[in-house]
Amino acid sequence: MRVIDVKEDEDLLNVGTWEDGGTKQWCKFDLPDPTEFRTVLNKQPVLLNGKRTCTQGMCGDVTGDSKYHKDGVAKVFYTAHHAVDPAQTKKYLDQLARTERDKTLAPPILFHSKFFSNSEELKKAFPDLTCII
Question: Residue 105 and residue 44: Cα distance in Å, rounded?
Fold first, then answer.
């Protein structure tokens, strides 16, 4: 197989996982557009036990499907497609760095309007979640 023939990043991650003997499949959790980063850049309220709830921005999940991911898919603020405007990308990177420095950046995983710091926290809250992060 030629890597150049694999058009989508999720497909490449799946093939790489399967070639290494893995059986899981990646879900589409990257953001469709950089503007969605406004959600983690907003000052989201902190609730009990240090957990944040999404109240501003695009708080919904990535839409699931009726067969494999009925409850939706978590949004993961690691990457964004369609980052084609260098000035806009720089603006978001600068804002991310500033909010991280100020300790106001929301955790990077969002599912059912709750933010999670890592995949272990997410899996603990939703043990039957079918997507891996």
Answer: 8
